[in-house]
Design a protein that fits this description.
DNA-binding, 194 residues, homodimer, mainly alpha
Amino acid sequence: MMRAMRSDAARNSEAILQAARDVVAEEGIGASMVRIAERAGVAVGTLYRHHPSKDHLVGAVVQDATRRLVDLLDAALARIETDGDVGREFETALASAAETYATDRAFKEYRAQARGAAVDLPGADQLEARGYAALDDLVAAAHRAGTLRADVGAADVLEILAAVPTSPERRATYLAVVLAGLRSAPRRDSPVGR
Amino acid sequence: MMRAMRSDAARNSEAILQAARDVVAEEGIGASMVRIAERAGVAVGTLYRHHPSKDHLVGAVVQDATRRLVDLLDAALARIETDGDVGREFETALASAAETYATDRAFKEYRAQARGAAVDLPGADQLEARGYAALDDLVAAAHRAGTLRADVGAADVLEILAAVPTSPERRATYLAVVLAGLRSAPRRDSPVGR
DNA sequence: CATGAAGGTGAATGCGAGTTCATATTAGAC
DNA sequence: GTCTAATATGAACTCGCATTCACCTTCATG
C-alpha cells in the first residue's frame, strides 16, 4: 500500500500538470522543461521527482486531452443509439475534435509524430484502442446513414483533423470546406488519381 | 567583376545543394549539417564556404522548390487565358502544389513556420510576391468561373495545402475530399459557425 | 611545373536543452 | 518542539548540433 502523498508534493504535482498543459499547448512539444518549471513556480528538479522524463510529462498531458476526446466520441455514439441524427452528431464530434487539435499545439504535434515514441503511461494502449474503436464506430454509422463519403475511412478522418488550422477564421472555413467534402459523393473523373 | 569559381568549388556547390535537397526533403528542417555534408561527400566546413548558415542553405533549397511552384501557377494562369477550363486548371495546380507539400518535408515545415525567419536570399521577397499574386489570380478566376466556394480565399487554400498528408493513399483521399468541398456551395446551417 | 590564392578539412568551441544529484528545506508524526 | 523521511533546489554534467578557424590540398595561371 502506497503512503499518501505529502501535501506540498500533491500541490506541486497538480501545479506541474497544469503548467505543462498550458505551456505545451501554447508552445508545443518543443517547450523547455525550465519554462514549465517556471510557470509552475517550482525548480526543474521537482519536475523530475514527479515524472521520469520530459516525454513522460508531455505524454501525461496529451493523454489527458485524449481521454476527454475519446469520452466525447463515446457520448456522441451513445446519443446516436437513442436519438439518431447521425449526420449532426458526426459533424459536431468532428468540430469538437478539431477544436482540440487547433487549440492544443502539443496534442497536434504529438499525434503528427510517428507512433512508437509512446511512453509507458498506465492505460495508454487501452485508451488509444478505445479511441480508435469509437472513431471506427462513428465512421461506420456515418457511412450507413449516407452522411459520409464511402471512400473515407477513420484514418482519413484523423489525417483531416491533424491538419486543422490554428487561426480561428481559417479553421472555420477549413471545417466548412472539409465537412462539405466529406458529405459529397466520390466521382470518377478527378485529376487526383494517379 | 567576380572571378569564375574554381572547378572543384562549382562541383561541390552543386553536390551540396543536391544533398541538402534530398536530406532536408526526407528528414525535414531539423536534419543536421553533418548529415548533409556526409551525403554531399564533403566536410562540414565546406558547407559554410558556400552558405553563411544552415538557415541560408535550407532557405536556398526551399526557394528553389518555391520557384518551381510559382512557375507552375503562372503556367496554369497562362493556359486559363487561352484555353479556359478554369476548374480543371485550378484543381490540377492544387494537386501539383500538394505533391510538393507532401513530398518535401522541409518545404512543408518551412511554410508552416512563422514568417520573418526569412533569410536574405536575393529575390526572395519578389518571388514570394509573385507567388501570392499568382495564387490570388487563380483563386479569383476560380471564383468568377464558379468553380470555387465564394467564402474561400487564397489564405485558406494555402492552409489546406499545408495540411496535405504525406502518405500517398491518405493524400489521394484528402485531395478528393477537399476538392469536392472547395467546389461545394457554402451553407447556412453548419455546426461550425460560432 | 612552380606558386599562391581559392578551396577543403575536421577538431574545437559555444550554446541550448534534458537530466542528475549533493545539499537544503519542510511536512507531519510523536 | 524534535526529528526524520520526503521533497525541493539549482548548479553542474551531458549530449547534439551549428559554427569557427588554424592548417592542409588543389586548381589554374604564367
